[in-house]
Amino acid sequence: MPLLLAGLFLAMAPAASQISDFWRSTRQQLSAEPMDAVVEPSKDPLPYRKFRVTLRGLHGVRFRAYLAIPVRGESSSKPLPAIVTAPGYGGSQQGIMLDECQRGYVILQVYPRSQGESEELWKIDGPEKLTWGIDRPAGYYYEGAYADVLRGIDFLVSRPEVDPERVAIMGTSQGGGIALAVAALDPRIRAVRRMFLACVTCERPRLYLVR
User: Fold this and answer.
1) From CA 143, how far away is CA 138, in angstroms rounded?
2) What is d(CA 167, CA 105) in angstroms, rounded to the nearest whole number?
3) pTM for the complete prediction?
4) Domain that holds residue 59
5) What tens digit of pLDDT does each residue of 32-87 get?
């Protein structure tokens, strides 16, 4: 029976070309959406620069992110490497904290649609992100969530503080899965660090140099 089920699954699985065509179409739709970035500086007394960012993603859905930039004073304005991250399945705990930017990175914490602060802007009409719209690939929750992180990268590389040739992504649990998927979709990502990947047993953090 297990072999029969495995055979049925493989027979139903889309071909690699179909998957490529699906994501090519998704990215074309995303690129047609204006970014409409709203960048609000934080008034918190911090040793780095913090901004709340609102972006427009796939199908016009708006979502939030937080940007952190180290203070460099009179030092060189040479562009910095950047790290983008997404939350675990709870929607609020990010894979890297903003204050880590003081190590010399620009950090962007993305909250995909219906997660964290982004719930204020758009929310799924069901209990679980994992299964919302799963019967239709075009419109499935994670199509939009991955696209939101891709849009976050669009925003990140548009910043003069960022070196677009040195962008990495990292995440824990759900965020680790998003990190691997987005790195496969976006050639601008040069390295991936994922920790405790969702839906598998706990394992060591891993770093992948992808390009």
Assistant:
1) 7
2) 10
3) 0.88
4) 16-209
5) 999 999 999 999 999 999 999 999 999 999 999 999 999 987 666 799 999 999 99
